[in-house]
């Protein structure tokens, strides 16, 4: 996008700047923001039995080691969501935390199949989440939108059925994505349903290159024709892919603490976020499933910068990239970048 302006930020002010700077979150699963306390409260409200005796016991069960063992507990947690108000309460809890982290724009993923498979109507899901988005804009000053994700471990036929169920509520979501277990479920499995969504004018994103190979990122781009790649960190293994992502300015929605928790990198110091930025990619920082992966947006920024030694210039670039990569109009993007520059000017020496 624009050239990085020069700012002289004292090193000791960097953590406060990371927290204060306005930013967009482009990769978070709303069901992954469900904190143990809320799971327990909703289980009680709805009379749902869960296989954990206490909040502490549930929190301890979060010691998963890979994507699949995480997904197992993630689906168990989602089982307490039954009514429109439950979905509202879940989204509202996240949106309040986002506002506290100076997230000014968020594009939230939701997984309708996780709920419709339990007999919850997709209308209940979408209405509750959407009402929280509307209220967030009005009272928190956070612009929020929804992206419907298809679960890739299920069939494309199932995805088509989900799309049909959701289309009467088309005005309440802006795009579609692809999530859940990546390896063994390449993007091309969903070529037809993404083609249909493209005809419908929906924005397209997909998880690719988290645990899966660079080939999955190529097919997300060339077969699904996505506008953003979620994760995409494995792209660094393929120089031609890196060049393509940089040239076409395809945003990567990177999730450092998620990568750490799921052992995509051995430690945060080894994370390749700096490599992606220095190669000119539109990389961003995001929280993925913040309740499960140890932190919301600012925690992701703080821990990653502390571990990798990224600088204030990187911070500006990441925030600017988040606005460039968001599905808002150019005037809104420019307005956010002005606010970003004002924050940096305030922190300059
Ligand atoms: Zn994700």
Give a quick precis of the structure.
By secondary structure, the protein is of the alpha/beta class. Helix content is 50%, strand content 13%.
Which hetero compounds are present in the coordinates?
zinc ion
Number of domains: 1
Give the second-level CATH assignment, the architecture: Alpha-Beta Barrel
- Overall, the morphology is globular
- Compute the gyration radius: what is it? 19 Å
Number of helices in the DSSP assignment: 17
CATH superfamily: Metal-dependent hydrolases
CATH fold-level assignment: TIM Barrel
CATH class placement: Alpha Beta
Question: How many strands in all?
Answer: 8
- Strand proportion: 5-15%
Computed structural class: alpha/beta
Helix residue percentage: 40-55%
Key words describing this protein structure:
globular; binds zinc ion; 8-stranded parallel β-sheet; 349 residues; 13% strand; TIM Barrel; alpha/beta
């Amino acid at each position: 996008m624009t050239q990085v302006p020069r700012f002289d930020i004292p090193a000791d002010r960097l953590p406060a700047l990371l927290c204060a700077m306005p930013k967009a979150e482009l990769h978070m699963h709303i069901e992954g923001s469900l904190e143990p306390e809320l799971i327990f409260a909703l289980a009680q409200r709805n009379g749902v039995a869960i296989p954990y005796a206490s909040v502490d016991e549930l929190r301890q069960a979060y010691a998963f080691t890979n994507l699949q063992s995480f997904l197992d507990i993630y689906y168990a947690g989602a089982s307490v969501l039954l009514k429109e108000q439950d979905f509202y309460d879940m989204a509202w809890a996240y949106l309040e935390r986002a506002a506290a982290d100076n997230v000014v724009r968020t594009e939230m993923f939701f997984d309708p199949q996780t709920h419709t498979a339990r007999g919850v109507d997709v209308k209940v899901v979408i209405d509750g989440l959407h009402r929280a988005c509307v209220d967030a804009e009005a009272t928190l000053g956070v612009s929020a939108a929804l992206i419907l994700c298809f679960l890739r471990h299920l069939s494309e036929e199932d995805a088509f059925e989900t799309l049909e169920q959701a289309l009467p509520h088309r005005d309440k979501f802006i795009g579609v994505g692809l999530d859940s277990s990546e390896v063994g479920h390449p993007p091309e499995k969903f070529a037809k349903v993404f083609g249909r969504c493209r005809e419908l004018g929906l924005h397209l994103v997909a998880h690719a290159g988290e645990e899966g190979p660079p080939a999955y990122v190529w097919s997300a781009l060339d077969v699904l024709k996505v506008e953003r790649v979620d994760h995409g960190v494995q792209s660094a293994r393929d120089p031609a892919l890196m060049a393509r992502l940089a040239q076409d300015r395809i945003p990567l929605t990177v999730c450092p603490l998620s990568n750490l928790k799921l052992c995509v990198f051995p430690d945060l110091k080894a994370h390749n976020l700096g490599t992606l930025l220095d190669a000119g990619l539109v990389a961003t920082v995001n929280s993925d499933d913040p309740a499960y992966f140890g932190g919301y947006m600012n925690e992701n920024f703080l821990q990653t910068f502390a571990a990798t030694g990224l600088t204030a210039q990187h911070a500006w670039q990441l925030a600017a990239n988040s606005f460039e990569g968001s599905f808002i109009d150019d005037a809104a993007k420019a307005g956010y970048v002005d606010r970003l520059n004002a924050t940096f000017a305030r922190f300059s020496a």
